[in-house]
Amino acid sequence: MGYSLLGLIILIADLYAIYQVLTSGASTAAKVVWTLVILILPVIGLIAWLIAGPRGDKARI
Question: CA triplet 39, 42, 47: central angle to 5 degrees?
Fold first, then answer.
């Protein structure tokens, strides 16, 4: 049961990340690349998107 809950959390986080990518102001090529990375590598892609995603440069201090 623990693994299925973790999988569900990752799925929801990935769907949120893909939604954020598709609604961002990034170029179409960047949207396609980020979406593919998140779909092919769900956990690593999500972490990479959180760190350096299309909106990542706005979060810098």
Answer: 120
